[in-house]
Amino acid sequence: MLDDDGTLTGDYPMPAAYWRLAEHYPIVVRIRAARIPTAPRLAFAGEFQALSDIFGQRHLDLWWLTHHDAYLPEPTPRRDAFDTLTAALPETFVTVVGSCHPCCLFLTVPLSALTEQVADAILAAHAGRQSDA
Question: pTM value?
Answer without folding.
Answer: 0.82
